[in-house]
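Async update (no meeting this week)

Hi team, since we skipped the sync, here's where things stand on the single-chain job. The sequence we agreed to prioritize is pasted below, unchanged from the tracker. I ran it this morning and attached the output directly underneath so nobody has to dig for it. Comments welcome in thread, and please keep replies under the output.
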Amino acid sequence: MTVQQSGRRERKKAATRQKIADTALRLFLERGYDAVGIRDVAAEADVAVTTLFSHFASKEALVFEQDEDFEHRLTRAVTDRAPHEPLIPALRREVLALVRHCTADSAAPIWRMIDASPALRKYDDLVRLRHADALATALAADPTLPLSETAARTLARFVIDAYSLSREAPDPEAALDEIFPMIEAAWQAASRDDRCR
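Output:
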């Protein structure tokens, strides 16, 4: 297979995935999350149910279709930062971008739907735990960071909680301004403790 064919296949796959996600979200917002089934989404998107499941593992995943991108952005804030760039400002910058995305006016109906559904709230909790685990793995793997595995996991949870708390706050940026100095203090304490070992 040529590179051009492979590129075309990937673009077609991405377009199909986006079409399914957009269709699902439209149906969920129009009819209500619980009133729409997987077969409804597949029929409306003009794909087979098996095609839908090849792109999304569950009905809940349709609502969180940008989940993997968010996770990659968080881990890249660690792995792709410039040499000698301080860690906490890099993480704050990425969390701020994610919070701005998730608090845009267009996101409000989606969050209302999530808040109204026990299944979606539970899935959101699982997504956040997975993001924290991925971020902790990136932190622990970075040879320039003096962190134990426990410290990496703790810092990652703090960062994910900062995202959640800020997203829900009346003034998300002010909330980040309040939370991140605490994360910086925890980071400094963890760095000192690990250097003393």
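Quick observations from my side:
The radius of gyration is 19 Å.
The chain is about 80% helix and 0% strand.
Reply here if anything looks off.
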